[in-house]
Specification:
Length: 183
């Protein structure tokens, strides 16, 4: 029996509460792109019209853009818009897709755990001095914000969230494989 295509409204639905939360937060955070445009416009205005360039816009815009890029990874996974080989994926049955998803999620779980550990070591060295005192790593510029330390912390948090996402998606696929409608 041929598999019927999954309706788009079901396919795009979040698979769990964490995915739904990530989608909601990401939609709110996407407004920061507009903020970045405004501050960049402000910089251009100040630099070329008033000959008074800012010291903070470039680093702030880069930090916001980098942060949103990092969060975009878990958003893509939550909305099931991540990269996959659709030539193969679309040609197989729904049950085989679940097995392919399981393989992807298990490999992704291993990747997320290793990256979370690596990013933790980066956070540790960017938040604490070698002798253990708390001190955030800064950019070293005239403005000198702690953006490098904050971005490293965000990367660590995102990899921890991704780790949990992979576990929840594995559970979802196992439940789907146990469901006899997929056979």
């Amino acid at each position: 029996m041929k598999d019927l295509p999954t309706p788009p409204e079901v396919e795009d639905a979040p698979k769990n509460k964490l995915d739904a939360c990530i989608i909601k937060i990401s939609h709110f955070l996407s407004l920061l792109f507009i903020f970045t445009v405004f501050i960049s416009f402000y910089e251009v205005l100040m630099r070329y019209v008033f000959d008074a360039p800012t010291t903070w816009v470039h680093e702030t815009a880069s930090f916001i853009g980098g942060s949103l890029f990092v969060v975009g990874g878990i958003y893509a996974f939550a909305t099931d818009k991540h990269v996959r080989v659709v030539l193969i994926y679309d040609a197989v049955s729904q049950r085989t897709r679940r097995y392919l998803n399981m393989f992807h999620h298990i490999v992704g779980l291993a990747f997320a755990s290793m990256m979370a550990w690596a990013s933790f070591t980066m956070v540790e060295s960017s938040w604490f001095t070698p002798w253990g005192d708390f001190r955030l790593e800064t950019s070293g510029s005239y403005f000198n914000p702690p953006y490098p330390a904050l971005l490293k912390a965000l990367i660590f948090i995102v990899f921890c969230v991704l780790f949990v996402q992979f576990i929840l998606h594995i559970i979802h696929e196992i439940k789907g494989l146990r469901n006899h409608k997929d056979v």
